[in-house]
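Sample pair:
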Amino acid sequence: MMVNKSMHKNICNPRYAFSRLLSILLPSIATVITTLASMNAHAHKPSDSYLTLTAQANNNDVTVRWDISLRDLDFVLQLDRDNDGTLTWGEVHNREADITQYASSNLQLSNTEKTCALTTTAPMQLDHHSDGTYAVLSLNAACGAPISEAIQIKYSMLFDVDPSHRGLVQWIPSNKSDKPVETGQDSMAMSFVLGTESATQNLPMQAPSQWQSFKQYVVEGVWHIWIGFDHILFLLSLLLPAVLVFNHNDTVKHLQAAPSFWGAFKEVLKVVTAFTLAHSITLTLAALGYVSLPSRLVESVIAASIIIAAVSNIRSNLDTKRWVMAFGFGLIHGFGFASVLADLGLPSHALVTALIGFNVGVELGQLAIVAAFLPLAFWLRHTKFYQVGVFIWGSVLIALMALYWFVQRAFDL
């Protein structure tokens, strides 16, 4: 087959490639979206449950408030009896005994090697978190003897089916009255994370040091950015063009490799700095309670930001100031980070230290992603694999995933 010069130029033209891409892609978009929906992908919010443990005035008992996602409970207990994809209060209420038994079998509190007896103190209720509806269990752990140095907690909820699941604990050892203490109101409130590698922990009667709090929240910051797939995809969408430039020597612009690593590095540095500065501002303001936005709005805009960044790549808009986009949308991503930090809880005895630690952790996790991406992208920048397969097709897949997240979040599906 003969290919003339003008046809070759059209084939190499990014805009021509984009139009051809859409003509191929449009018939399969519905199939892709359906596949994504069947995966029930949750980009930003991992599977967590929330436990607030309060030592009572007699120092023998611990009250427990336990929030467990109905999505998780349905997965292990099949609460949706009619399989219509919607849980009703009746379906949940009818299984209250099963839910309580399942939860209690995966939580153990002990004092000086003696297991505390768990009993229910109030009917199950429902509450709403950023990622859906949760069952709220009210329990009491009778330990039989005064808690001296620490109480041990063992947690195994969902670990057999979801190793990434975590129990987020707020431990309040210093309550002097018989009234429950709300999280964040007691100066001794401490936060702990129970995962597969930290399923058993000692909850001390004294608050940890500032340094211990800092280290804990650094780890949480790193962990969150690594499992926050929407944040990662937004950042990658902005970084993908950093190793590419347009060749303006012809009437038709062509994608080509960036001439120097230093030039690509400077572009990455501008994007990462703008994103870091922006989300640090709003994360701090939101965590300290100065600014608050509806979670549904924040999560929807985060998904939209990924779509805009990815479509900009597909259209080969390499001349745009991507650091401006990084800063503008980074302000919204900061609220997303803050929602996770709010769920985790900030210890009031080390609030500033923990906030700084979480910020540092987010940045370290982000820099690790950049350090892995940039050298590899620069090495592959000359290849069609990168220029078409990664840059164009990768951006298409990112846009489709973000579109699914946007529909899911904006319409509360």
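DSSP finds twelve helices and twelve strands in the chain.
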